[in-house]
Amino acid sequence: QRRTVVLPFGHTGYPDALRDDPDPPPVIFRQGPERLDDRVRVAIVGTRNCTGYGRDVARQLGAALAERGVDVVSGLASGIDAAAHAGAISQAPARAVAVVAGGVDIIYPQRNRGLYQQIAEHGALLSEWPLGSRPETWRFPARNRVVAALSAATVVIESARKGGSMYTVDEALRRN
Predict the structure, then answer these.
(1) Taking a C-beta distance cutoff of 8 angstroms, is the pair 39, 62 a contact?
(2) What average pLDDT does the segment 79-87 reach?
(3) Element of type H or E holding 65
(4) Which of 70, 92, 126, 148 has the fewest Cβ atoms surrounding its Cβ within 10 A?
(5) What is the dihedral of CA 149, 152, 157, 163, to 10 degrees?
(6) Angstrom distance (rounded) from CA 69 to CA 14
(7) Rounded Cα distance, 146 and 22, in Å
(8) What's the pTM?
(9) E-strand spans in 32-69?
């Protein structure tokens, strides 16, 4: 069992990007490094049902950003999210921040178990939901809001006109 740190709004370890957000989570649960604020972060998001080309682009972009010291933020979903995170953790040091839609102790989707474990060890897992919380459908838009709020930029690689990726774009635009 990994150590989970509970960061209420206003705590010194609470991410600055969320502290200044128009809709900050009241609390963040974190597994990973002590602080995130010394790093530039870029979100890479996209469809779960991506093409091989989209997966390759996400992985290459994730690796290129991490190689340059940028943290790659995504939702740890299958498809584009997982590919971007895999690219980021392929670099040393790994530069991946996964915002999950359940508790940080719940691996979802199960097929990303290995990636989840690598991010928990070498990057950061974040959630606004308590341990044991299942990733309910209504929690995904909230997760995407946090992905956008943490990131200086949001890159979309393959997306439908509606859905989670575009929700993240709307949230990023809301935050300029």
Answers:
(1) no
(2) 97
(3) helix 52-67
(4) 92
(5) 20
(6) 21
(7) 11
(8) 0.93
(9) 40-46
pLDDT tens-digit map of 55-64: 999 999 999 9
Q: Mean of the pLDDT values across residues 72-101? A: 95
Q: Environment class of residue 113 by beta-carbon count within 10 Å: exposed (0-12), middle (13-18) or buried (19+)? A: exposed
What would the two tokens of residue 172 be?
């990023």
Residue 35: both structure tokens together = 């602080």
CA dist., res. 81 & res. 62, Å (int): 10
Q: What is the pLDDT of residue 63?
A: 97
Q: What is the DSSP string of 121-165?
A: HHSEEEESS-TT----TTHHHHHHHHHHHH-SEEEEES--SSSHH
Any idea what DSSP says for residue 92?
A: S
